[in-house]
Amino acid sequence: MRSRFVLGWMLSAFILAIFIPLLATENVLIISVAMQLVFYVALPVLLFSYHFKKRGVKLRQVVFFRGTARWLLPIFGLTVLMLALSMSLYWMTLRAIMPITPTVVNFALTPQPLPKALWYLVATGFILAIIAPIAEEFVFRGLILNRLMAAFGFWNGLGLSSLLFAIFHINFFGAFLFAVVASLLYLKTGNLLVPILLHIANNLVAVYQSFINPTFPQWLMVTSISDLYTKSVPNFIVLIGSLALLLFVIERLAQGLENKIEEYRIFWK
Known about the structure:
Layout: H1 2-25, H2 28-55, H3 72-97, H4 102-109, H5 118-152, H6 154-167, H7 172-189, H8 193-212, H9 227-230, H10 232-254, H11 257-260
């Protein structure tokens, strides 16, 4: 207990030692990157160092390459499926709120200028696309999912952990379904690397969309208010089709999983 207490104070002092001079510089971009690194690196490392040591768990027990290669093609397919669902959900959300808050819709459809500093775009893109997925999978699937399943059972724990994950994301429904799939992949393989790769693939697409603002596929992308109405049919078809297919994938991944779950209770106690 004493060592953890000292370690906590050392980390706090380290963070303050970094942020005090950063705040003095008044460089918003540097401060932003530093905050992201603290949130996605320093805090998760401290949290998992404690839990790994407490339970005598080695990193190689929860993250390993063995058997991962056969999941690469399914990960690619799931990434495309989640992208299609997200795009159609985006259309549905904007279409639904258009009569209520047209100002919000206009803002959402207006491309926002990015900072001109290349180093900032590279650093932020790397953090969001690579570091953030690793940190979030360790926290939400490696820790929160297991603890909630231990307390509330398989499906209730999976649902609650997915709900917590979705709360921290703008695309709430899409993030919830993503979390369910990521959770099932982890529980099925016992390997955090599989959902990490899925998460990285999805975040790479999201970063690309945010930074590049692509218009492909033209028949599905909503870039103006008129698109909300003229592209209703293709978006509705993609929404129903991708949702049905994703639910089918979830059902297949979950088959027989509840009976095998005892094998992966590394963090449950």
